[in-house]
């Protein structure tokens, strides 16, 4: 029997406000479930890194939706847990652990949210399905696992949302003023897709079509990058099942169902699909 936390120690790189784009999407997408919950909702920031900023910030953003949310930061490195303990407070705690999520709460301790940002990027692609399954198995009914990657200061993000049955959607998000072409986001694709940005794979086709839509939207550039992005996403939506409302596109986001970008081969080709995207 394996002893100790499940997983590997990550690099631990973290900066304040790094995950704001992901947090904003989570708060909007998970908001209805947070408000409906008859229990006090529980969230997890898995692999928060060498400093607890991202866990503290996530809790603050979720509490704008539901004031009694509790959150645990889970880290496999005991020194990182010790460094975070001074930041504990009502509804915020830090524990040592990994994919098993050893949450010290009464009852079954199942979280409504597990966020794993910049964790699986350091694993091999064939390790992703088992990690996803382990974490999905811990979710409370109606919960989400949000797993993805961003750059060091949060300008470029990509993440997969999963429910208890499988992957649901892929979201790309960017600070539009710093985006030369949308395919620049390819370097931040989550581990499940980053090696799939090659001809013949759906995610490669998505990024190529988004670049072409961005080029076609060049006449909107004088009105600012947001207007150009809105036009590009509208053009893309003619051929791709773009989800969500225009209000979300304005934030520099693009979400498509997982089924539109799922790998055609390899360990994730046969991954079960989630119940469907909840357009926010």
What does this structure look like?
By secondary structure, this protein is of the alpha/beta class. The chain has 2 domains: 20-175, 3-Layer(aba) Sandwich (Rossmann fold), CATH 3.40.50; 177-261, no CATH class. 30% of the residues lie in helices and 18% in strands. The chain has 9 helices and 8 strands. The chain has helices at 20-36, 53-63, 78-84, 128-136, 191-194, 202-216, 225-236, 246-249, 258-261; strands spanning 42-46, 70-75, 92-96, 113-117, 144-150, 156-163, 166-174, 253-257. An 8-stranded mixed beta sheet has the order 3-2-1-4-5-6-7-8, with helices on both faces. Helix 1 (20-36) packs across helix 2 and helix 6 packs across helix 7 (225-236).
Topology record:
Blueprint: H1 20-36, E1 42-46, H2 53-63, E2 70-75, H3 78-84, E3 92-96, E4 113-117, H4 128-136, E5 144-150, E6 156-163, E7 166-174, H5 191-194, H6 202-216, H7 225-236, H8 246-249, E8 253-257, H9 258-261
Parallel strand pairs: 1-2, 1-4, 2-3, 4-5
Antiparallel strand pairs: 5-6, 6-7, 7-8
Helix pairs in contact: 1-2, 6-7
Which tags fit this structure?
280 residues; alpha/beta; Rossmann fold; 2 domains; 8-stranded mixed sheet; 30% helix; 18% strand; globular
Would you kindly provide a brief summary of this structure?
The chain is built from 9 helices and 8 strands. It is an alpha/beta fold.
Q: What is the radius of gyration computed over CA atoms, rounded to a whole number of angstroms?
A: 18 Å
Distance between the termini: 42 Å
Architecture of the largest domain, CATH level 2?
A: 3-Layer(aba) Sandwich
Across the major sheet, the strand order is 3-2-1-4-5-6-7-8
Rough outline:
globular
Q: What fraction strand?
A: 15-25%
Look at the structure and give the CATH class of the largest domain: Alpha Beta
Number of helices: 9
CATH 4th-level superfamily of the largest domain: Vaccinia Virus protein VP39
CATH topology category name of the largest domain: Rossmann fold
Show unreliable segments: none
- Mean pLDDT reading: 92
Structural class: alpha/beta
């Amino acid at each position: 029997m394996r002893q100790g936390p499940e997983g590997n120690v990550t690099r631990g790189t973290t900066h304040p406000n790094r995950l704001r784009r992901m947090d904003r999407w989570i708060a909007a997408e998970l908001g209805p479930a947070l408000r409906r919950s008859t229990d006090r909702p529980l969230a997890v920031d898995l692999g928060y890194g060498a400093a607890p900023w991202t866990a503290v910030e996530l809790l603050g953003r979720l509490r704008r939706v539901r004031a009694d949310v509790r959150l645990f930061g889970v880290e496999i490195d005991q020194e990182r847990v010790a460094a975070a303990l001074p930041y504990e407070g009502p509804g915020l705690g830090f524990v040592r652990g990994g994919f098993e999520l050893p949450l010290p709460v009464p009852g079954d301790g199942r979280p409504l949210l597990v966020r794993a940002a910049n964790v699986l990027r350091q694993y091999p692609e064939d390790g992703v399905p088992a990690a996803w399954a382990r974490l999905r198995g811990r979710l409370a009914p109606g919960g989400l696992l949000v797993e993805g990657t961003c750059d060091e200061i949060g300008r470029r993000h990509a993440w997969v949302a999963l429910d208890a049955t499988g992957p649901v959607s892929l979201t790309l998000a960017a600070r539009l003023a710093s985006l030369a072409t949308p395919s620049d986001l390819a370097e931040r694709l989550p581990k499940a897709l980053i090696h799939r940005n090659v001809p013949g794979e759906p995610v490669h086709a998505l990024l190529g079509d988004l670049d072409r839509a961005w080029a076609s939207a060049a006449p909107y550039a004088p009105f600012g990058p947001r207007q150009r992005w809105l036009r590009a996403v509208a053009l893309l939506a003619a051929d791709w099942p773009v989800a969500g409302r225009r209000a979300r596109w304005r934030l520099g986001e693009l979400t498509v169902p997982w089924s539109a970008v799922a790998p055609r081969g390899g360990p994730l080709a046969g991954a079960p699909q989630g119940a469907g995207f909840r357009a926010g």
